[in-house]
Amino acid sequence: MARILLIHTTYETVGGGEVFSIELRRALESLGHRVIHVTMNPGDPRKAGKLMEGIGDFAEVLPRPLAERLLASLTRGGATKLRRLLLAGQAVRLAPRLVEKYEADLVVDTSSGYPVRLDIVYMHQPTIIALTRASNPMARLYLRLIMRVAQGILGQPRVPLTNSTYTARLLAEVYPFLRDVRVLHPPVDYNYYSRATPVCEEKRAVTLTRIVRVKKLETLLDVASLAPDWEIHLAGAVTTRASRKYAEWLERQAEKRGLSNFHIHRNLPRSKILELFSKACAYIHPPFHEYFGIAVAEAMSAGLPPIVWREGGAWTDLVAPCCPQLGYRAPGEIPGKLEEAHAHFKEYSRLARERASKFSHEKFRERLASIIEEALMGKE
């Protein structure tokens, strides 16, 4: 089997990209490959360390470039896009030495967010897409700075990967030189969430997401107002001061508007999320374009009819192929979609589970094995 150098440059924050890198490592090792896992920032041991439980430590912690360290200090951890680009550049520069040192057959990058000249590059999102669409002069200036810095490292990966057909389309829009982007959907713990047994005895809807302002969760307040016979449950991670303040604001707004049918659940363990799913009739995703939408896939695994905005990977790759009737274009349509899901619950539940099963860990390993085999043959 192959020796694979896995580069994830930073675990400064622990989000979907970091979780994916660990899932990828587990899958590669289960396929019999030797994984040499390196980073430049191992992050907070209380967070990243927990993520790494059971799989061993990093093979090496690489030096961060001086410019990135200075920028992190000056911005107090800000300028994330530019800093990740600087880390990606360092990874490209160090890759030949690391390949020689560890006798690696393939290099896999899961963190840069930019197409770079490595064997396999997994891009979770087109990092600069928001800046390309911004009218703010400072944002445009920031974009020009990033593109100038990027010129030295941008290029065609041997195997460019991403998480949905939606993201693949955006990548092609942002990087015209990028060819043959393949979709490798993130794995979903289908076996766990499919244990849920929703029976739809009461009109309850669930939303599972990080509680942050960018997710537009105030939409759920409007849904609770327009559908007073439905109980709306928002469950999500509250891990920062900003997210705590936003959760408190949502609660104050609900109280001010007399919405006793709106409920927030902070930082629930998976077992409690499973219980919440089992008591619900539908899943509502707010009008935010997820590049894939792991929470939507988890809810579908539990058998919940998914009510999703008609934009983003959660729509194109998860919901549209099985339950197109449940997509909405404007938040005012959500109450009607709830009634549709309730009226035909058993059929939508079956369709949602069937679709979600295609993103299980087993399916992920099968697709990954094929990609790795093809990449290795291309290097012979």
Task: Outline the fold blueprint.
Elements: E1 3-7, H1 16-30, E2 34-39, H2 48-51, E3 60-61, H3 66-74, H4 80-102, E4 106-109, E5 120-123, H5 129-132, H6 137-150, E6 159-162, H7 165-174, E7 182-183, H8 190-193, E8 204-208, H9 219-226, E9 231-236, H10 241-256, E10 262-266, H11 270-278, E11 282-284, H12 294-301, E12 306-309, H13 313-319, E13 327-328, H14 334-343, H15 345-356, H16 361-379
Parallel strand pairs: 1-2, 1-4, 2-3, 4-5, 5-6, 6-7, 8-9, 8-11, 9-10, 11-12, 12-13
Task: Supply the key terms.
about 375 residues, Rossmann fold, about 45% helix, 2 domains, 13 strands, alpha/beta, globular, about 15% strand, seven-stranded parallel beta sheet
H/E topology pattern: EHEHEHHEEHHEHEHEHEHEHEHEHEHHH
Class by helix and strand content?
alpha/beta
CATH topology of the largest domain: Rossmann fold
- The domain count comes to 2
Describe the structure.
This protein is of the alpha/beta class and 380 residues long. It folds into two domains: 3-187 and 361-379, Rossmann fold (3-Layer(aba) Sandwich), CATH 3.40.50.2000; 190-358, Glycogen Phosphorylase B (Rossmann fold). 45% of the residues lie in helices and 14% in strands. The protein is built from 16 helices and 13 strands. The strands form two sheets. It has a seven-stranded parallel sheet, with helices on both faces. A six-stranded parallel sheet has the order 10-9-8-11-12-13, sandwiched between helices. α9 links the parallel β8 (204-208) and β9 (231-236). The two termini are 14 Å apart. The model has no long low-confidence stretch (mean pLDDT 93).
